[in-house]
Design brief:
Length: 166
């Protein structure tokens, strides 16, 4: 396990959700603070607001792909490129785990419910979930993608993101 994967897992064990754990582990290359990334990704945990849909770890990876590679242009070409990036990582994740769906990833280990209240973070909680491995795998896939396709849109140390109007 590399340093970024460990950082993401440490965030999860601190109580952050899967999406937050993946997204915030990339604060050093996005130009955004860890707090900003934690806030941006907060709603994607638990399979999108605990609906148990798309895995939060994968959602966090998608957020980072958008930050690093999207120009924000609404053109069909821009969208196609961004969707292709997301689909590439998602297909690899699905090949590793058999699904992208949170409830299916949890089904073998955890009773899945649809209430919005998060489960208490107990030792049993952490022991019974596949989430730490899912987080590590999402980070690894994203790191591999970044290594193969260095981003051009972001200066890693540039932390001067200002609100821009469209």
């Amino acid at each position: 396990m590399d340093q970024r994967q460990q950082k993401a897992q440490d965030l999860f064990f601190m109580g952050y959700n899967c999406s937050q754990s993946v997204a915030a582990a990339f604060d050093d290359i996005t130009g955004y603070s860890q707090l900003t990334l934690l806030r941006l990704s907060a709603s994607f945990g638990g399979g999108f607001g605990r609906l148990r849909e798309l895995c939060g770890a994968l959602s966090g990876a998608g957020l980072i792909l958008g930050i690093l590679y999207s120009s924000g242009d609404p053109s069909p070409e821009e969208k196609e490129g961004q969707y292709a990036r997301v689909q590439e990582i998602a297909k690899k994740f699905e090949k590793m785990h058999g699904t992208l769906i949170c409830r299916e990833l949890l089904a073998a280990k955890v009773a899945v419910t649809d209430h919005p209240t998060p489960d208490p973070r107990t030792p049993e909680y952490y022991q019974n979930r596949p989430c730490p491995q899912l987080i590590a795998d999402a980070v690894l896939l994203l790191e591999q993608y970044i290594a193969e396709h260095p981003p051009k849109n972001i200066s890693p140390k540039e932390n001067s993101h200002k609100e821009e109007s469209v």
